[in-house]
Amino acid sequence: MVEFAGWEMPVQYSGVIDEHVAVRTRAGLFDVSHMGEIVIRGPGALELCQKISANDVSRMKLQQAQYNLLMNEKGGIVDDVIFYQIEPNHFLICVNASNSDKDFAWIEEHAEGNVELENASSRYAQLALQGPLAEKILQPLTSVRLNEIAPFFFSFGEVSSIRCLVARTGYTGEDGFELYCDSVEAERLWKTLLASGVPMGLEPAGLGARDTLRLEKAYPLYGHELDDTTTPLEAGLEWVTKLAKGPFVGREVLLKQKQEGIRRKLVGLELLDPGIARSEYTLFKNGRSVGRVTSGTKSPTLGKAIALAYVAIDEACLDNTIEVEIRGRKTRAKIVPLPFYRR
Amino acid sequence: MEFPEGLKYSKEHEWVLVEGNTATIGITEFAQEELGDIVYVELPEVGEKVVKDDPFGAVESVKAVSDVYAPVGGTVLEVNDVLPDNPETINDDPYGDGWMIRVEMTDEEDLKDLMTAEEYAEYVEQQKEDEDEEEEEDEAEDEEEK
User: Fold this and answer.
1) Rounded to whole angstroms, how far apart are CA atoms A287 and A147?
2) Which helix (H) or strand (E) holds A254?
3) Number of domains into which chain B is organized
4) Which residues from A are below 8 Å from B58, CB to CB?
5) Residues of CATH 2.40.30.110 domain(s) within chain A?
6) What is the pLDDT of residue A255?
């Protein structure tokens, strides 16, 4: 167990690699109840959501989920989040645990008009059932027709008589579901899913595997690839950033940055020499510092050392070879396309 | 958990097997278990000097990197060539095939600081208890906050 944002979190159960492989080939169950939940509802909800975020919330369908960024005035990222549209003008936002208080205060600061805000983080627990067998494991336990839930959509229903929001979302790059339920029901839901799924190959999975899985898929992790000073354009999240949707916090800065061009960019690295690049290691080209690593590991699926890194724009082109300083030794790394892993 | 008799142990969780003037060094079962799946090992070259209590190499799991400290000083006579391609050998057999380096000791006095198997077992128990206490303290704090 390890302390994370005030939560005692399991890093691993049977072992990171074993759990990682289980999720890629069968299924894994994660307790991600540390994630925060913020509710925005009322006649002014859509307008508020549009103002505080980069993606176009008005394009969401009912019971659709959307990856989105809460933005600050400098074009930096307050948090990366998932919006769930429960009803028109009723949104549930899943936020990072370490940011939930910051996010809530920041949304409150921007709220005007007729909206109701609730930091519902302690009310909700969240379990993530991820992997190619996820649907097969979950279907016998629920009357929700899972094959009718498309990726990034959700539905309400009971899982083994526990009321859940069942979303086809995740952070692993595999098919799967994220189940939100009342926190008092979480333990029962966990046990029920395991009891039913283990005979089919399900394994409990921890934070360690969650990190290696998301990294292979190049999903950013707040505090590593994203923070209050990185912009979505630098982070490769232009696809989330709908500059044409109308005004939102930070938009002017982003428009300017788009026009002038970014100075650094998030890239994928594959190490060409032995070693593993870790967060905060410095990158060099011809003896000059050109960036820093934000996350790195040895990819259990690819068997190679991979990393995400911010690199000066003139060195950020594909196939460019740069160097990572690992314990005083320069190690060659090549810039490769993202994601590292595709299902 | 196993801590073989006849080995010497350091507070940084390395073990030493002393044969005459030669010391074989690896990490303990407790250390490999704390690290989890080991995926990369960095070792010194033969002929390099290692300094007591300084890092001589590193062991990396998927989730983190840890330095490995020299429990004794000396000159590297041999390194375990199996490890670069099969780092998981340390998980499988930390006291046997998972040995890391063999050094010619410069000063036998270095051994005096090291623990016996019995002392190390106690030391590990203490470390585990400290971890548990920290968790309990955190829980107590959480309760107060509520």
Assistant:
1) 54
2) helix A251-260
3) 1
4) 327
5) 238-336
6) 97
CATH number of A2-215, picked from 3.50.20.20, 3.30.1360.120, 1.25.10.10, 3.40.50.300: 3.30.1360.120
Q: Is residue B139 part of a domain?
A: yes
Q: Specify whether the CB–CB gap between B41 and B25 falls below 8 A.
A: no
Chain A residue numbers touching B36 (CB-CB < 8 A): 11-12, 15-16, 208
Please write the tens of the pLDDT for every residue from A244-261.
999 999 999 999 999 999
Chain B residues inside the 8 Å CB shell of A22? none
ipTM for the predicted complex: 0.78
Phi/psi of residue B14, each to 5°? -100, 155
- What does the pLDDT look like over A98-124, one tens digit per residue? 999 999 999 999 998 899 999 999 999
Complete DSSP assignment for B47-58 = T-EE-TTSEEEE
| pTM confidence score | 0.91
Distance set, CA A27 to CA A146, A265, A341, B142 (Å): 16, 33, 17, 33
User: In angstroms, what CA-CA distances link A302 with A24, A75, B87?
Assistant: 12, 35, 16
B36 touches chain A (CB under 8 A): yes
* Nearest-angstrom CA–CA distance, A35 and A156: 19
Q: Is A170 exposed, middle or buried (0-12, 13-18, 19+ CB in 10 A)?
A: buried
Q: Are A248 and A54 in contact (CB under 8 A)?
A: yes
pLDDT for residue B136 is more than 70: no
Distance (Å, whole) CA A154 – CA A136: 17
Chain A residue with minimum CA distance to B63 = A208
The upper half-sphere exposure of residue A102, i.e. CA atoms within 13 Å in the direction of its Cβ, equals 16
Place of tokens 């993202």: A338
CA A144, A145, A147, A151 torsion: positive or negative?
Answer: negative
- Closest chain B residue by Cα to residue A1: B135
Q: Is A240 helix (H, G, I), strand (E, B) or coil?
A: helix
The CATH number of the domain holding residue B100 is 2.40.50.100
Helix (H) or strand (E) holding A190: helix A186-197
Give the sign of the dihedral formed by CA B53, CA B55, CA B59, CA B64.
positive
Q: Domain A238-336: give its CATH code.
A: 2.40.30.110
Specify burial of residue B101 (Cβ count, 10 A radius: 0-12, 13-18, 19+): buried
Which residue range forms the structural domain that includes residue B126?
Answer: 8-145
Burial class (CB in 10 A: 0-12, 13-18, 19+), A183: middle
